[in-house]
Hints:
Blueprint: H1 2-12, H2 22-28, H3 33-44, H4 48-64, H5 74-80, H6 86-97, H7 101-109
Amino acid sequence: LTERLIIHMNEERSYLNQELTLSELSAQINLAKHELTELLNVNIGKNFFTFVNEFRLKAVILRLANPDYDHLTIMAIANDCGSNSKSMFNSLFKQAFGHTPSEYKKKLREGRVLA
Length: 115
C-alpha cells in the first residue's frame, strides 16, 4: 500500500491540488480514510499534512533549479506546486532546507551546493 501511495503521488501529482484533502486522496487510491491515516502514521511516520507538503516542497525545489521557471516568482511556483499560503510555505521551506526560498534560489544561482 505504501508503494501504491508513493507511485500515485509521483504519477498523478495530487499534491498540486491546493485543496487536496485526506478524503480526496483516500478516494483516489481506493482506501478508506482511516486506512490512509494509519498507512501514513504507522508505515510512513508522517501525518497527511506533512506527507503532502514534502511532495510540494520537492516540486518547488525542482522548479527553482530549472531556468525555464525563472520568469515566475517563488510564490507563483509555490502556488503551482500546491501551496496556498505564503507564510506557511516560507515556514515549511525554511524548516526543510534551512534557508528561506529566496536565499535558497540565490545560492542556487551562485552555483553553491545546497543540501
